[in-house]
Design goal:
Blueprint (H helix, E strand, L loop, with lengths): L18 H24 L1 H32 L8 H5 L5 H13 L21 H33 L9 H7 L6 H34 L12 H27 L8 H32 L2 H10 L5 H18 L3 H5 L1 H27 L11 H21 L11 H6 L6 H7 L1
Length: 429
């Protein structure tokens, strides 16, 4: 609704990309493309697998960040208002990630073992045509929901700042705000749309990311199965989105002098969320591991044994150290959560652990019986390609749209104790 609360959040966007950051994006992308070409020329199988696991990691953390915007909308988290647009900015990467999924199906023979050796009874599900159709449709629906969510979240703000929009962005912003109905009506409409889209996104996220875990991880060992792998996979993605949002928020807080609006209390709240889901990741891992260990069934143990045997075992321990142990003790205290430097450090360690986790979910199956660790320049090379595209997409978003959400959803108006007109309150209900 239109009210005085707008005044407490300024119109801020990234007006110019720092030269060093621009160079970093270009450098990462160029080096990544070179690594991609070199990898395919040297060893196509290794190249497909490096591309595959990096795609899994980057789509996980980007979608996890977007989901954070939906989750705090569902929960009506007032504390998150200065942060939710930063999390939403990673929606700009999702169409790119969707397009980068397509090549994977052309390299399917290098990835999925059930293509060369079909599994009787499972071949109805495990076949490339059906895999391609269900993944493209499922992920496509999720990307469309992301874009719609971003559209309705941005529209009231863009209408509010139409007169201050730079000339080069007026066409885009004009398209988003076409058929403008007035500030009050637009805020009410966006509130209703976001109230509907948020739980739809959360449910679709769980279903699609769970399906990715079945098809892109569990089916690599088609005789193994786990009912907990889906939640473990998509909650790990959400944890990555939280850590990615934290790093980005801390960067903008310093670069754009946003300390007045992104306060230490906001950092503390975000830190508590990161800490809580770090514990939850550990709980899901242990909940899955203890059942497999206690059951002592060879068909259930194979997946774990392949990852906790040489030459992969040290990486498996490093994953636990980086995702759980170090962030757990690092974010345990209040001071660390409120310290931008320490918070950034532990968030980076967690993301490193999640990257290695996506590697160890896939590579031990690719290289069963390997004597040496199959990790070389191909894996970080592909990382650079995806990182360059992710950062570039994020910068595209933050240079065009308000970085802080200025309009206040109707439900949050009531939570703030701001009185509304009876007609506004009735419309909200």
């Amino acid at each position: 609704m239109a009210h005085d609360a707008h005044a407490d959040m300024p119109y801020k966007r990234l007006e110019t990309v720092p030269q060093a950051l621009r160079g970093l994006v270009i450098g990462l992308t160029v080096v990544g493309v070179i690594a991609l070409v070199a990898a395919f020329l040297q060893n196509p199988t290794r190249a497909w697998r490096a591309y595959y696991f990096n795609w899994l990691f980057f789509i996980s953390i980007a979608q996890g960040a977007v989901l954070l915007s939906a989750v705090v909308t569902i929960a009506k988290g007032l504390w998150s208002r200065p942060l939710r647009r930063i999390a939403l900015s990673f929606a700009a990467f999702m169409p790119i990630a969707y397009l980068m999924l397509i090549p994977i199906f052309f390299g399917a023979d290098h990835i999925w073992p059930w293509i060369a050796e079909p599994v009787p009874g499972k071949d109805v599900w495990l076949n490339v045509p059906f895999l391609t159709v269900r993944t493209m449709i499922g992920l496509g629906i999720l990307v469309v929901i992301d874009i719609l969510f971003a559209y309705y979240a941005l529209r009231p703000d863009l209408g509010m700042v139409r007169d201050r929009t730079p000339a080069q962005f007026r066409k885009l912003n004009g398209w988003i705000t076409r058929n403008w109905r007035g500030q009050e009506a637009e805020e009410l409409r966006s509130f209703n749309k976001l109230t509907l889209l948020s739980p739809v996104m959360a449910a679709t996220y769980a279903l699609v990311m769970g399906m990715l875990s079945w098809d892109f991880v569990m089916s690599l060992e088609p005789h193994w199965f786990s009912t907990l792998l889906g939640p473990y996979f998509f909650m790990g993605a959400f944890l990555g989105g939280l850590m990615l949002t934290a790093i980005t928020t801390l960067r903008y807080r310093k670069h754009l002098a946003l300390e007045e609006w992104i306060t230490t209390n906001n950092l503390h709240d975000l830190g508590k969320l990161c800490f809580g889901f770090t514990i939850f990741w550990g709980y899901l891992f242990f909940g899955q591991f203890i059942v497999i260990w206690y059951g002592l069934l060879p068909i259930e143990q194979s997946f774990v044994i392949h990852r906790f045997s040489a030459p992969f075992v040290n990486v498996a321990y490093l994953v636990g150290l980086c995702i759980f142990l170090i962030p757990f003790f690092g974010l345990l205290g209040v001071a660390t959560k409120k310290s931008p430097t320490l918070f950034t450090l532990f968030a980076c360690i967690s993301l490193l652990g999640l990257w290695l986790e996506r590697w160890i979910l896939t590579y031990p199956t690719f290289y069963l019986g390997a004597d040496n660790l199959p990790f070389s320049w191909q894996e970080p090379g592909m990382f650079m390609l995806f990182a360059g595209l992710l950062i570039g997409a994020h910068l595209w978003f933050t240079t065009r749209f308000p970085l802080l959400q200025m309009w206040v959803p109707a439900a949050e108006v009531e939570l703030q104790g701001i009185e509304m007109e009876p007609t506004q309150a009735a419309a909200m209900r």
